[in-house]
What we know:
The chain has about 375 residues and is α/β, with parallel strands linked by helices. The chain is built from 13 helices and eleven strands.
Amino acid sequence: MAPKRPKGAGAFPKAVESPAPARPDPDALYAALDLGTNSCRMLIAQPKGSGFHVVDSFSKSVQLGAGLERTGRLSRSSMARTIQALRICQQKLKRNRVRRMRLVATEACRRAKNSRDFIRQVKRETGLTLEIIQPEEEARLAVISCAPLVSTKTEQLLVVDIGGGSTELVWIDISSVPRRDRPAAIMRLHNGFHTTDSPFPAAKVVDWISVPLGVATLRDQFHDVEDDSARFALMSWFFEENLADFAPYKDEQAREGFQIVGTSGTVTTVAASHLGLKRYDRTKVDGLRMTSDQIDKVIRGYLELGPLGRRRDPRIGDDRQALIMSGSAILQALLRCWPTDRLSVADRGLREGLLYAQMSADGVLEDGPF
Length: 370
């Protein structure tokens, strides 16, 4: 006798639908766009606790400052590349219905004779309003982006932001701030470097400087030097010469209680090389601490590779092989001036600073540890 067919056999199983992720409330979203000498970067995020959650992002090498050293103007081709990237940013802002945003341009637009015409062209072709910010605000935003990485044991802090067209250095004394409040004191600098009306113990900005040399502009200064090692040595020496007006430069700094935080593609690439990463991983790089000896070993390795070897290195590649050496020359000069065992790597910068500043001003960030 044939077995009876079980009841319901052959019936189609009920489909299990996974719910689509809820779209974030546009009223809770903030955007920050950083148009630099070399790159165009944007973040769209919503506040989360004392930080934020990234909803969407964009990053593209546009080389806006290509040829600027020679002509003093933004070229047609570099402006066209940049506007193409900005159109993508505009589409992302529209798709997410973002209403709170700051879209800023830095050193290339500060220096170019035709930057105002470019800003008008961007507005006409994309609808985006770019704001050219001054070096002090750029430095301040870089500082507050690094606040979560400041150790509670730090008393003297040097934040270094190596950009494409300029490098900002800010020296901050937080020795009078209670230890647990030190990162928060850095965050409060979004109001300005010299505000005195805060009821909380304040971080004191001892000095700051914006050196008009970044990875692209320093490279262009020595493009005619053919020997790789000689070019590197000249770049490092030349950058150190440009630090002469930075007040803390002359004072020998005790290593105890002193921290350097470095934010730039150079610093994160050096960190990735140190870790031997095959693919870049932000979670392993952001917040990593490296010694001067470890950084120097990586830089010596870059020099031994030479231009061809650096092009073939997956962490560097063809686009960045020349830029990584000018950035490394800046980093080496800084470590000669302030040898430290506490260089912290920050995979964050102007965009994060812009977001923190907007959210702090609106009071939507919670108090507490980052």
